[in-house]
Automatic annotation (TrEMBL):
<dbReference type="InterPro" id="IPR013078">
    <property type="entry name" value="His_Pase_superF_clade-1"/>
</dbReference>
<dbReference type="InterPro" id="IPR051021">
    <property type="entry name" value="Mito_Ser/Thr_phosphatase"/>
</dbReference>
<dbReference type="Pfam" id="PF00300">
    <property type="entry name" value="His_Phos_1"/>
</dbReference>
<dbReference type="InterPro" id="IPR029033">
    <property type="entry name" value="His_PPase_superfam"/>
</dbReference>
<keyword id="KW-0378">Hydrolase</keyword>
<protein>
    <submittedName>
        <fullName>Histidine phosphatase family protein</fullName>
    </submittedName>
</protein>
Length: 156
């Protein structure tokens, strides 16, 4: 069994002309929500073997707060990715990794979660899902994941 954690970056500051999109920081609420996501994952006993993360400032900070002590790999391909591109990144993971986390952006993170698990659920800032997969990472594809839990900071 493999476990996948898909985390959308927490609430970020509004984009302005003065701050490029990649450099937008988390808001105070975003900082709190990212920490709370980490607490929820800790309660679930989930510590990823690896964290794949967008290099955007808001995603990096979310990963730092949600997965303290776990070294993240910042992958430019995750920023502005399509769901298929995220899935391809997951297929390349070390087969020995039991738990992989991916911290990125919508709509790709949300669409990937729905593709893997089916269903119809929202995916606001700071939301994560935990998906179990019975296949190796290299064989991961649509419909092969089971939604274990979903956490949304607005609903907590």
């Amino acid at each position: 069994m493999r476990t996948l954690i898909l985390l959308r970056h927490a609430k970020a500051a509004t984009q302005t002309l003065a701050v490029p999109d990649k450099d937008r920081p988390l808001t105070d609420r975003g900082e709190r929500d990212a920490e709370r996501a980490g607490e929820e994952l800790w309660i679930l006993g989930l510590t990823p073997d690896v964290v794949l993360c967008s290099p955007a400032r808001r995603a990096r900070r979310t990963a730092e707060l949600a997965f303290p002590g776990v070294q993240a790999r910042y992958e430019p391909a995750i920023y502005q990715a399509y769901p298929e591109e995220l899935l391809e990144r997951l297929r390349l993971q070390d087969p020995d990794h039991a738990t992989v986390a991916l911290c990125g952006h919508n709509p790709a993170v949300h669409e990937l979660a729905l593709a893997l698990t089916g269903g119809d659920y929202g995916f606001g800032p700071g939301t994560f899902v935990v998906i179990r997969c019975a296949v190796p990472w290299a064989e991961l594809s649509s419909g092969l994941g089971e939604l274990i839990t979903r956490w949304d900071p607005k609903l907590d």
